[in-house]
TrEMBL record, chain A:
It is a peripheral membrane protein. GO terms for molecular function: ABC-type amino acid transporter activity; ATP binding; ATP hydrolysis activity. Belongs to the ABC transporter superfamily. This is ATP-binding cassette domain-containing protein. Pfam families: ABC_tran. Residues 1-27 are annotated as: Disordered. The lineage of its organism: Archaea, Methanobacteriati, Methanobacteriota, Stenosarchaea group, Halobacteria. GO terms for cellular component: plasma membrane. Residues 29-261 form the ABC transporter domain. SMART domains: AAA (SM00382). Keywords: Amino-acid transport, ATP-binding, Cell membrane, Membrane, Nucleotide-binding, Transport.
From TrEMBL, chain B:
This is ABC transporter permease subunit. It comes from the Archaea. GO terms for biological process: amino acid transport. It comes from Halomarina oriensis. Residues 114-311 form the ABC transmembrane type-1 domain. One of its GO terms (molecular function) is transmembrane transporter activity. It is a multi-pass membrane protein. The chain crosses the membrane at residues 25-46, 85-107, 114-136, 156-175, 182-201, 257-276, 288-314. NCBIfam families: HEQRo_perm_3TM.
Length: 271, 329
């Protein structure tokens, strides 16, 4: 999974290199036998995968298959019962959870901007209160993040004054500002009007091109085809199939994968 | 979206502009009332309880109207029915002048009582708020133990009469013995302190419930998002949930403030001569019940309307686009 085969300019670049100061085989994220249940209901039944630096993993699967739950286990927004998750070789259970979450950013389906703060303040809050930056430094940094997602002119706007797509781009800037090593996207475009999806995906593509390591739950197959280094099909708490996007799209090994992708593609082409 | 809102806002402010006279008049009367009240308080602290304006002027007016009316009544002739009617109006004027004369004479004493009403209300609501915020946070975000403790406090204080609580504090626990050393000019008796404690602990319970409802209306996803950037739960509540929840709580909180203005009269039962008690004392001295209770009603109305206006201003002042009830309806 460590090689990009997506036809972009940097295909020859191995995703994990010695310049990271680690051995080439050492993944940024390693998930082993992850198990999670809510009471009697088992949601995740043994998930295993590695994610290398600069890789973009797209996770697809039917509703209730455990995609969001898996993301939330990675930054411990929800606790899991079995298995291990390691970030950069260290078990997340051994880390301070606030420190873990600073290193692993998250973007939500329902965006969750802080409604009483401007776009700029949404980004500076973490810088000021978590990283203890001065007001001026935090604002400079936040401004540069807003520029990165193309929203510098809206810095002084409150969430209610922004469109859905703009809000989600602020949500991405908020996560980026903490300089995360890994970014989790939990269906970032599912709550958006169709015409606003593009601007968010564009920002995400730029991030992927810039080498950000990303774990993305989405059903935007265009994005998966274009930006994913690997595609994972999750169903009933297990990985059904995982591989380079082309392989899953063009010659999936399992019928379930084929059926699901066929349905998704039809839907997204209709839209 | 924001365009729609600003047109709505525009329409509202245009509607407001059509009755500027009523609004300015109300504000002017309010300003006059508070100027008088503050000057009065200062005068009382400086030792003067004399009315600023001689009551004799209005008394003379009342007598004059009354005598004229009597003369008109006794005049016969063709115009007698008309004169009788005018006499009736004159008697009404006489009663009004008598009411004003009465008011001028006793307003200084009522103002003194109103001072304690204001002190009890303001301290009760503010100290109560300091207790209510942690109570409501514990109720919404606490574990089983803190949640239970908070709930227990709230239900105990809301479930028993305020008067009984004041009696327990004043007679049962004899709380005033601890405050004997803290009486000075503006706080004339230790009982005032006991009343402040009573209103604070009682109001905290009610305020906690108003704030709890407000905190619960802040989307939980925002706290999740706060934790996702590395803020602790407590920091998330402090920086994300509370600033929004407290804004949502303002209308309910205003309600509590208005209740407290009137409930503070219960302090009379533990010897605090606040507004209502000062009026009752005058009534039992003069037997002018209608006059004095009429004046008290006007006084409470002035205090309550002032509180409403002030909180409306605060609500506008801290309003944020898209947050709370002011926008979009």
């Amino acid at each position: 999974m460590s090689e990009r085969t997506d036809g972009r300019g940097d295909v020859s670049e191995p995703s994990s290199t010695a310049e990271d100061g680690r051995s080439a085989g050492d993944p940024l994220l390693r998930v082993e036998n992850l198990q999670k249940s809510y009471g009697d209901e088992t949601v995740l039944r043994g998930i295993d995968f590695d994610l290398d630096r600069r890789d973009v993993e797209v996770i697809i699967g039917p509703s209730g298959s455990g995609k969001s739950t898996m993301l939330r286990c990675v930054n411990r927004l929800t606790e899991f019962q079995g298995g291990t998750i390691s970030l950069d070789g260290e078990s997340v259970m051994a880390m301070n959870e606030n420190e873990l979450r600073r290193r692993v950013g998250m973007v939500f389906q329902d965006i969750n901007l802080f409604a009483h703060l401007t776009a700029l303040e949404n980004v500076t809050l973490g810088l000021r209160k978590v990283l203890d930056m001065s007001k001026g430094d935090a604002e400079d940094k936040a401004m540069s993040q807003l520029e990165r997602v193309g929203l510098a002119p809206q810095a002084a706007s409150y969430p209610a004054e922004l469109s859905g797509g703009q809000k989600q781009r602020v949500g991405i800037a908020r996560a980026l500002a903490m300089d995360p090593e890994l970014l989790l996207f939990d269906e970032p475009t599912s709550a958006l009007d169709p015409e606003l999806v593009g601007e968010v995906l564009e920002v995400m593509r730029d991030l992927a091109d810039g080498g950000m390591t990303m774990l993305v739950v989405t059903h935007e197959m265009g994005f998966a085809r274009r930006a994913a280094s690997s595609l994972m099909f999750l169903d009933e708490g297990k990985i059904v199939e995982r591989g380079p996007p082309e392989q899953l799209f063009d010659s999936p090994e399992r019928d379930r994968t084929r059926e699901f992708l066929a349905r998704l593609t039809t839907i997204s082409e209709e839209a | 979206m924001s365009g729609e809102r600003s047109t709505a806002r525009q329409a509202l402010s245009n509607a407001g502009r059509q009755l500027p006279a009523g609004r300015s008049l109300g504000l002017a009367v309010g300003a006059l009332f508070w100027c008088w009240l503050v000057v009065r308080w200062v005068a009382i602290w400086l030792g003067s309880k004399e009315p600023f304006f001689p009551a004799t002027f209005f008394e003379g007016l009342a007598t004059g109207f009354r005598n004229d009316g009597l003369v008109m009544q006794q005049t016969g002739g063709a115009l007698a029915p008309v004169l009788d009617f005018v006499a009736g109006v004159w008697f009404l004027f006489s009663d009004l002048a008598g009411f004003v004369a009465f008011g001028v004479e006793y307003l200084p004493e009522l103002a003194e009582g109103a001072w304690l009403t204001v002190v009890l209300t303001v301290t009760g609501i503010l100290f109560g708020l300091v207790i209510a915020v942690p109570l409501s946070v514990a109720r919404v975000y606490g574990g089983p133990v803190t949640r239970g403790l908070s709930l227990g406090y709230i239900e105990l204080l809301r479930g028993t009469p305020l008067l009984a609580q004041l009696f327990v504090l004043y007679f049962g626990l004899n709380l005033s013995q601890y405050f004997r050393g803290f009486t000075f000019g503006v706080l004339p008796s230790a009982a005032v302190w006991v009343a402040i404690v009573g209103f604070t602990v009682n109001s905290a319970a009610y305020q906690a419930e108003y704030i709890r409802a407000a905190l619960e209306s802040v989307e939980s996803g925002q706290l999740t998002a706060a934790r996702a950037i590395g803020l602790s739960r407590t920091e998330g509540i402090r920086h994300v949930v509370l600033p929004q929840g407290l804004r949502y709580a303002i209308p309910g909180w205003t309600n509590e403030l208005i209740y407290l203005i009137k409930y503070s009269s219960l302090a009379a039962f533990i010897t605090v001569v606040e507004l209502f008690e000062s009026g009752r004392i005058i009534a039992s001295d003069t037997f002018a019940y209608l006059n004095i209770y009429g004046m008290l009603a006007l006084f409470y109305l002035a205090l309550v309307l002032s509180a409403t206006l002030f909180m409306g201003w605060v609500e506008n002042r801290v309003a944020i686009p898209g947050l709370g009830v002011r926008d979009g309806r």
